[in-house]
Amino acid sequence: MATFTIKRGDTAPALRYALLPETVDLSGASVAFVMDGLGRLPARVIEARPAVVQYDWQPGDTDRTGLHRAEFEVTYSDGAIETWPNAGYLLVQISEDLG
């Protein structure tokens, strides 16, 4: 799995992730971004089908450098919960900046 890399203190670019399989339908669903050290934070559904979700970094989110595990947790309109990736984690590398 590819690693998303961002510099310490940055809030862009957003972390965008396509959910597979392409038959996933996020109509009426809500989504959260979960990352070690940050907890569970609200994320956005960019497209319901094919399913694309996004987390927009907030000030302070990228203050802790290092390699972090993350995932997107979807709550469907019927209350069912599913997490992506289904196996393993997204990897987020927060690199030192020069400032």
| Low-pLDDT segments | none
Total number of distinct structural domains: 1
Q: Can you count the beta strands?
A: 9
- Structure classification: mainly beta
CATH topology: Immunoglobulin-like
CA(first)-CA(last) distance: 30 Å
Radius of gyration: 14 Å
- Name of the CATH architecture: Sandwich
Shape: elongated
Q: Assign the CATH class.
A: Mainly Beta
Round the mean pLDDT to the nearest integer and report it.
Answer: 96
Which strand-content bin applies to the residues? over 45%
| Total of DSSP H or I helical runs spanning 4+ residues | 0
Largest sheet: number of strands, sense, barrel closure: 6 strands, mixed
Helix content: under 10%
- Series of secondary-structure elements, N-terminal to C-terminal: EEEEEEEEE
Q: Summary?
A:
The protein is mainly beta and about 100 residues long.
Can you describe what's shown?
The chain has 99 residues and is mainly β. The chain has a single domain (3-84), classed as Immunoglobulin-like, CATH 2.60.40. 0% of the residues lie in helices and 47% in strands. It is built from no helices and 9 strands. The protein has strands at 3-7, 15-18, 30-35, 39-42, 44-47, 52-55, 66-75, 81-84, 90-95. Strands 1, 3, 4, 7, 8 and 9 form a 6-stranded mixed beta sheet that branches. The protein is elongated, with a radius of gyration of 14 Å. It starts with a strand and ends with a strand.
